Amino acid sequence: MKKPSRILALALALMLVVAMVAACAEEPAPVVDEPVVDETPEPEPEPEPEPEPDEDYEPVEDYEPVEDEATDVDIRIALVGHGPASLQFDGSFNEGAWMGILEFLEAHGLDADAHAMWFQASEPDDESRVDVMVDAIETWGADILVLPGFHFAASVYTAANMFPDVMFVAIDYTPAPGPTPANVVSVVYAEEQSGFLAGYAAVMDGYRDLGFMGGVAVPAVVRFGHGFIEGAEFAAQELGLDAGEVTILYNYLGAFGPDPAINTLATSWYAGGTEVIFVAAGLAWQSVAPAASDAGAWVIGVDTDQSLLPGIDTSMFLTSAMKSLAVSVYDMLADFANGAFRGGSDLHFSAVNNGVALPMANSQFSTFSQAQYDAIFAQLVDGSIVVSTVLPGDGESTDPTTMITTELVTVEFIN
Question: What does the CA dihedral 379, 380, 385, 386 come to, rounded to 10 degrees?
Answer without folding.
Answer: -170
